[in-house]
Automatic annotation (TrEMBL):
This is Uncharacterized protein. The chain crosses the membrane at residues 21-42. PANTHER family: DNA-DIRECTED RNA POLYMERASE SUBUNIT BETA (PTHR36362). GO terms for cellular component: endomembrane system. Keywords: Membrane, Transmembrane, Transmembrane helix.
Length: 398
C-alpha cells in the first residue's frame, strides 16, 4: 500500500549497496530458448486439440472464486523447504489477532494495509521473534503499530520520507516511543543506510535476528539485493503484485516463469488461459485479460515486459532473458518463500478486488461460515478485506 515514497528510479537488478549481481547470461539464454520452443508447441497443441475447458463452456456453471485455476507461481526454495507454521497455527493466530486489530488507532487506513496483510505481518513477526524490526515505508504508522503489537518490547527502525507525526495534524496516526525514525529531514533510503553503525547502536550481533518489512513501492529486485548486501535474512514484502499489475516490479512477477508450476503465460486470446481470463473481469477488479497482460510483441513478464518502480513513476523494458536472470538470482539466495493466503473466501468477506484464480486457497474457506463468525471476522467492515496483494515472506542467505 502507499507509503509516500518518491525516490529516483534505479534499473532492475542494481543495488546501491552491491552493484549488479547477475552472471548467468549464457545459461539463461539456452534455458530460455528451450522454454520458448516448449511453450510454442504446448500452445499450438492446446489450440488445435484441447476441448474447451468445462469451467468456461457456460458462465452459468462458472464458480466466481476458483482459487488457483490460472496458476499461482512461487519461487522455489532450495531443498523444497517449507515454513514451519501450519494452517492450524494461522487459525489460532486469527483468534488472537482479531481482538487486537479492533484496538488499532487508525480505523480507516485508506491507501494502507487492510486486515489480511495486518494479520500477516503480525503473525510473521510473532513467529520469527526478531530482536530488531525494520520497516521501509510507514505512511501514517499503522504497520509500526502492528509490529509493536507483535513485539511489545523490541526496538523498531522506521524509514519513511514523511514522519507519521505529520499526519496527526489532520487525523489519526501512530508514533511509537521505542522507534528510531529515519524520516523527514533525517530520511535516508533503505539502500543508503549505514547498517553497520545502526546494528552497533542497537547491539545487534546476529542479523538473522532482524525482520525487515518493505512497503515502499520500490523495485523488489533492488530491495532484495540491498537486503542481501546488508546481511539480513528475514524479509516481508507487502505489495507483492501479480504479473500485469502494480506500480513496481515484485517477487510474484519475478517468480512467474514458465519453468515454475503455475507460471508463464499464453498471449493468445483463444488459448485456455485467454478464454478463462476473459470471464474474470466482470467480477474481480484486479483481474487482467490477455490484452492487458501482454505487450504488442507478446511481452507478458513484469507489466507488459516492463520493470516498474517508484509508484509507477519509472519503468524500463526488459527482455525475457533478463527476467529469467532475475529469477535465477532470487532462487540462488532463497531458503524459504511463502505467500500469505487470503484470510477468508470472498463469499464470506464480500471482497471483489483480487482475483482468486491467481491465489492460493484462503485460511477460512467459503463453507466455514461458523468459523468465520466465531473468530469475529464477520463483525469487521467488509472493506477491510479489499487490500490483499499476496504479501510474501522470504528467508534468504548471502
Amino acid at each position: 500500500m502507499a507509503s509516500g515514497f518518491a525516490r529516483s528510479w534505479r534499473a532492475a537488478g542494481r543495488s546501491s549497496g552491491g552493484g549488479r549481481l547477475m552472471g548467468v547470461g549464457g545459461l539463461c539464454a539456452s534455458l530460455l530458448a528451450v522454454l520458448l520452443i516448449a511453450g510454442f508447441l504446448m500452445e499450438w497443441n492446446e489450440l488445435l486439440f484441447r476441448p474447451t475447458p468445462p469451467q468456461i463452456k457456460s458462465l452459468s456453471s462458472f464458480s466466481s472464486s476458483d482459487f488457483g485455476i490460472l496458476g499461482v507461481p512461487w519461487c522455489r526454495p532450495k531443498n523444497g523447504r517449507k515454513v514451519p507454521w501450519t494452517h492450524a497455527d494461522l487459525v489460532q493466530g486469527l483468534q488472537e489477532f482479531v481482538p487486537i486489530y479492533k484496538t488499532r488507532p487508525i480505523k480507516n487506513n485508506r491507501f494502507g494495509m487492510g486486515f489480511d496483510h495486518s494479520f500477516g505481518l503480525w503473525f510473521i513477526a510473532r513467529w520469527i521473534q526478531p530482536d530488531l524490526l525494520i520497516e521501509s515505508g510507514a505512511f501514517k504508522g499503522h504497520s509500526t503499530w502492528v509490529l509493536r503489537q507483535a513485539m511489545p518490547t523490541k526496538p523498531i527502525i522506521s524509514i519513511t520520507p514523511r514522519h507519521p507525526e505529520k499526519y496527526l495534524q489532520k487525523g489519526p496516526a501512530y508514533v511509537d516511543s521505542n522507534c528510531k525514525y529515519l524520516a523527514g529531514k533525517n530520511f535516508v533510503d533503505f539502500g543508503n543506510v549505514n547498517w553497520n553503525d545502526l546494528m552497533d547502536e542497537f547491539g545487534i550481533k546476529d542479523r538473522s535476528k532482524v525482520l525487515v518489512f518493505f512497503d515502499d513501492h520500490q523495485n523488489e529486485m533492488r530491495r532484495f539485493q540491498q537486503a542481501i548486501h546488508a546481511g539480513f535474512s528475514h524479509l516481508v514484502f507487502e505489495d507483492n503484485y501479480d504479473t500485469g499489475t502494480g506500480d513496481h516490479y515484485s517477487l510474484r512477477q519475478i517468480c512467474d516463469q514458465p519453468l515454475v508450476k503455475g507460471g508463464g503465460h499464453s498471449c493468445s486470446a483463444m488459448s485456455k488461459e485467454g478464454r478463462l481470463r476473459a470471464t474474470r473481469q466482470e467480477k474481480w477488479e484486479k483481474a487482467v485479460d490477455i490484452k492487458e497482460l501482454c505487450g504488442p510483441a507478446g511481452e507478458w513478464w513484469g507489466v507488459r515486459g516492463e520493470v516498474r518502480d517508484n509508484f509507477n513513476h519509472s519503468f524500463e523494458q526488459i527482455t525475457q532473458e533478463q527476467h529469467l536472470e532475475n529469477f535465477m538470482l532470487i532462487e540462488s539466495h532463497l531458503d524459504l518463500y511463502w505467500e500469505l493466503p487470503p484470510v477468508a473466501a470472498p463469499s464470506l468477506t464480500q471482497q471483489s478486488r483480487y482475483d482468486p484464480a491467481r491465489t492460493t486457497y484462503p485460511i477460512i474457506r467459503g463453507n466455514e461460515t461458523a468459523l468465520f463468525d466465531q473468530l469475529g471476522l464477520g463483525n469487521l467492515d467488509k472493506v477491510l478485506f479489499n487490500g490483499y496483494t499476496q504479501m510474501v515472506y522470504l528467508k534468504v542467505f548471502p
